[in-house]
Amino acid sequence: MEENNNESKLFVEDRKIVVPGEVLAKGIEYLPGHDTYKINNEIRSKILGLVKIKNHLINVVPLSGGYMPQERDGVIGEVVDIQPYAWLVNINSPYLGYLSLSEGVEEFVDLAKSDLTEYFDVGDVIYAKIKKVTKRKDVLLTMKDKMCRKLRGGTIIRITPAKVPRLIGKGGSMVETIKEKTGCKIIIGQNGFVWISGKNISAAAKAVLMVERESHTTGLTERIGKLLEKELSNVDKGDENE
Amino acid sequence: MITEIDKNYIREIINTGKRADGREFYQFRDIEIKKGVVKNAEGSAMVKLGNTEVIVGVKMEIGEPFPDTPDEGVLMVNAELTPMASPEFESGPPDENAIELARVVDRGVRESKAIDLKKLCITPGEKVWIVYVDIHVINDDGNLMDASSIATAAALQDTKIPKLEGDEIKRGEYVGNLELRTIPIACTVVKINDNLLVDPDYEEESVTEGKITIVTISDESLCAMQKSGIGGFAPEEIYKAIDISIEQGNKIRKKYFGE
Amino acid sequence: MRMSEEKRFDGRKFDEMRELEAKANLVERANGSGYFRFGDTRAIAAVYGPVETHPRHLADPRRAFIKFRYNMAPFSTKDRNRPGPSRRSVEISKVIKEALSAVIEREEFPRASIEIYAEILDANASTRCAALNAASIALAHAGIPMRDLVASCSVGKVNGQIVLDVAGEEDTEGEVDLPIGYVPSENKIHLLQMDGIITKEEFKKALELAIKGCKVVYQKQVEALKEIFKTYENEEVGE
User: Fold this and answer.
1) Which of C87, C98, C186 is opposite residue B229, by nearest beta carbon?
2) What whole-number distance in Å separates Cα of residue A89 and Cα of residue A76?
């Protein structure tokens, strides 16, 4: 059998499901991207996911799994502990977020006079940005970015982190639709925590969960529209009966 | 405690085809075997494998047979990694390492059929001899598996069957030897930087990419195997490990067990 | 003996496996789950994590700590299996844990731990193989990065014959039992246990047959994993 070992070859099509260990491509023409590895001139997948080929870069996008902190992600978290100069934040990952005093508060804080709980207390929910993830997975958070703030009231629902891009939709279309129809404020953390606040929380939450459940099916936008119409008309009736 | 520097040093030496203590890849450390080291045991042996030292004692007790083998004696192997032997061992019930050690030694003896368990039946379905083999680690400088296997074979070879008067065991009086039909010997082959080596010492164990223990018997058959540790073996590496184990097993049987 | 020149106790050919079944996504609360069946032997496995490691002193600053438990349900055996860990289950848990640890990209999760639990629901030989197969599926389903799946099956020697996937009387009357765990992409054996007397030549034949069996198992695992996300193929995703 004749075989040219230097020849590059692609073994999968774009947007196909692959499993860990599956050969995606061989040869120098292709580059191993996210969640892939290269061994013996072959690029293989590390995870169960969807292949994304951009030019010659081969990525695999996860469809399941927990949240792994990445720099520049916006995340929603709950303050779970306070240290002398920092807050520890549960960000739905195996690693707690670390919000130092200087990254958490703009003004000068005199610790002799004030207490960190005056800014964020245990149980407070915040939207923060991930400033840095170290090699040993220390996750350093910051509040010095747009949208970063304490989230007051409302509710938090959890979705699979892998579904976050689907909830956002193309150019933010999906979440904008839900916001518009329900009049709710919605903030999505890349970590799968979704904060919803406003009058029609329950309708918005149902829509978010529907996206999580059915994101991969066609005609979802229409179904979300129908769901919200139904939910919102129920709310109106409920109001009338009161 | 072995530092990363030590580990790199061990790997580098092995890459040059040598070992830190000057041994060949397929060479055991010096073996010393002393039988009859425990007066109160029906059989015993102390084995030194370099600085690794284990004592195996055999106690014979009377008990009930297993329901599925009413006419056979019972073999029980237990291992204790005493905190004395290494700073890594803790007191308390046996951990997974101690259990694995005992069970692999047990399989070697049991599956080799070295002991004729039928000869240990006193009253079928009621009373049989129970052979308790207890492995006691005195010093862990690596390769407890092979040291324990050799010590177990030696201790069983040393074992005498006590005299019985009714239900009472007359300790110190014997009716004969527990005869061994074959000598099962474990040989553990480890992989370091894709090289196969036998009888790893403690430092070498810290850098192994998996190990495979192969128990051979006098006729060169295999009777038990166990791959352990993190790291895999290609089929050819396993076949090679088998050849090594047969050769090493034969050497040990010839030199120390009079075969 | 009901074993003839060509056929086995249950009518299978010497190199024939029992009916295999693989599934993923059965345990709702877990991050991932899997199921594997060899004939009447059934195992289910679930993965939790990566999560923070408890107790803290077990945390490894360089890689994830892998916890694995193999457990037989009390009703899974002919005589009731007393609940709780036995020496046998501790040993099996150790070797399966080591096989899985070798393929998981543990360095991606320093200090964290990945917990894997496998339960044998019904036992008719090869339970550790079923547990390992189910656990591999569960890990992949949980989105854990790994170099490959581990596929497992056993071979035996029965009346002097090397047979694939021992079951029933072959398990109790056979001379040799040899379960292996195989990683196809590397062509390496990551789990191997053997008991019973076998020659080197017979062992070679047995290992070759076992690897052949593992490749069949592997296909089943891959199919089960692809099945759960089948509908996601070709979709457009917003960024």
Assistant:
1) C98
2) 9
Rounded to whole angstroms, how far apart are CA atoms C163 and C233? 39
More confident residue, A6 or C152: C152
Number of domains in chain C: 1
A interface residues, C as partner, C-beta within 8 Å:
15-17, 19-23, 35, 37, 39, 44, 46-50, 61-66, 68, 94-96, 135-137, 162, 165-166, 168-174, 215-217
CATH 2.40.50.140 residue ranges of chain A are 74-151
Specify the CATH number of the domain A74-151.
2.40.50.140
Q: Do B230 and C193 touch (CB under 8 A)?
A: no
pLDDT at residue C95, rounded to an integer: 98
Q: What is the pLDDT of residue C235?
A: 62
C126: containing domain: 20-229
* Interval A44-48 mean pLDDT: 97
Contacts of A240 (CB under 8 A, 6+ apart): none
Residues 6+ apart with CB under 8 A from C23: C34, C35, C36, C137, C224
Q: Look at chain B and report how many structural domains it folds into.
A: 1
CATH number at residue C210: 3.30.230.70
pLDDT surpassing 70 at residue A239: no
Structure tokens at A34: 């996210």
The range of the structural domain enclosing residue B153 comes to 4-256
Class of domain A9-62: mainly beta
Q: List the single residue in B107, B222, B228 with the smallest CB-CB distance to C198.
A: B222
Size of interface B-C (CB pairs under 8 A): 96
Is C7 within the bounds of a domain? no
Residue C238's pLDDT band (cuts 50, 70, 90): very low
- For tokens 């139904």, what's the residue? A230
Predicted structure pTM score: 0.94
As a whole number of angstroms, the distance between CA A228 and CA B2 comes to 63
Please check the confidence at residue C3 and state whether its pLDDT lies above 80. Answer: no
User: What is the ipTM metric for this complex?
Assistant: 0.96
Reply yes or no on whether the pLDDT at A158 is more than 60.
yes
How far is the alpha carbon of C100 from chain B, nearest alpha carbon, in Å?
Answer: 9
Sequence-ordered list of residues with C-beta below 8 angstroms from that of A71, at least 6 positions apart, any chain: A130, A131, A132, A133
Q: Give the span between the Cα atoms of C94 and C107, in whole angstroms.
A: 20
